[in-house]
Design goal:
Blueprint: H1 2-49, H2 60-101, H3 103-106
Helix pairs in contact: 1-2
């Protein structure tokens, strides 16, 4: 009986480690999404600051593709951030279920 409890505790610890590793991956994706989202904002602010040094009509052929690229990067950043947040919530629920199933490791997981 005691051997069975040890095996179930070992399996629960393995499950918790796997879920926490996936949560760390989601945090890395969140960090990447924030960086991808910050890049277009910094480019746009740089263009606004330097706008008195160029004529917008003359460089419109460069600004339109840059605007499309910035829009795409913003969409990608928002997607990565929202996906990561939803995944982390899912992993938190999975960790809660593991804690409820196995009281042995419940006190070790915050």
């Amino acid at each position: 009986m005691q051997e069975e409890n040890r095996e179930s505790a070992a399996i629960a610890i393995g499950e918790a480690q796997l879920v926490l590793a996936e949560k760390r991956t989601s945090l890395a994706v969140l960090r990447t999404g924030i960086a991808v989202l910050a890049l277009p904002l910094s480019v746009i602010s740089f263009l606004i600051v330097t706008s008195k040094y160029y004529d917008i009509i003359r460089v419109l052929h460069l600004l339109i593709p840059l605007g499309i690229l910035n829009g795409g990067l913003m969409i990608l950043g928002i997607y990565l951030i929202t996906r990561s947040v939803f995944r982390m919530r899912h992993y938190d629920r999975m960790i809660s279920e593991i804690k409820l199933k196995n009281s042995v490791i419940g006190k070790f997981i915050a």
